Amino acid sequence: MTTTTTLKERLRTDLTAAIKGRDELRAATLRMALTAITNEEVAGTAARTLSEAETVTVLTREMKKRREAAEAFAGAGRVEQAARERAEGEVLTGYLPAQLTDEELTALVTDAIAQTGAAGPKAMGLVMKALTPKIAGRAEGGRVAAAVKAALVG
Predict the structure, then answer these.
(1) Domain extent listing, the chain
(2) Which of 20, 44, 81, 109 lies deepest, with the highest CB count within 10 Å?
(3) How far apart are the first and last CA of the chain?
(4) What is the pLDDT of residue 5?
(5) What is the Cα–Cα distance from 94 to 26, expressed in whole angstroms?
(6) Over the Cα atoms of the chain, what is R_g?
(7) The three-state (H, E, C) secondary structure of 66-94, written as one string
(8) Looking at domain 3-93, does it have CATH number 2.40.110.10?
(9) CA 71 to CA 95: how far, in whole Å?
């Protein structure tokens, strides 16, 4: 069994358990995640199976959607919907790799700058290109970009 099927199969197994356990929130969240993965698999000209990294990317994107929706609902005073979105995000968090701490992120940014020989804010794209494969799913893009920008400017 490959690692690609491992995460997707884990989602399916957990969905079955959530349905049997009558855990409506978890079941709905896992259904949504599996649907997003399937949609990604059939997007484009030919159907394909997602790699582990691509599956993590889809789950990260869904996680980000939940966080943004929770902020929007909270800003509009819709507390119940915001709480639901946060709860769905927490379910998805269990399937994502552990997030990098600020210290770990800073160390990776410093290494990437040293490897690329980048200097100044104009080299941000070069550093991000070198850094992205190392971070894949373990830190949000905006957070990484802010750390790179701070390191290049400061």
Answers:
(1) 3-93, 102-153
(2) 109
(3) 47
(4) 53
(5) 11
(6) 18
(7) HHHHHHHHHHCCCHHHHHHHHHHHHHHHC
(8) no
(9) 22
> Rounded to whole angstroms, what are the CA distances from 98 to 25, 74, 142?
22, 26, 17
Matching residue, tokens 């989602």 = 11
CATH fold, domain 102-153, is Arc Repressor Mutant, subunit A (1.10.10)
Structure tokens at 131: 């850094």
pLDDT by 10s per residue, the chain, length 154: 444 457 899 999 999 999 999 999 999 999 999 999 999 999 888 888 888 888 888 998 999 999 999 999 999 999 999 999 999 999 998 998 888 888 988 899 889 888 888 788 888 888 888 888 888 778 887 888 888 888 888 7
Burial of 52 (0-12, 13-18, 19+ CB in 10 A): middle
- Residues sharing a CB contact under 8 Å with residue 13, sequence separation 6 or more, in sequence order: none
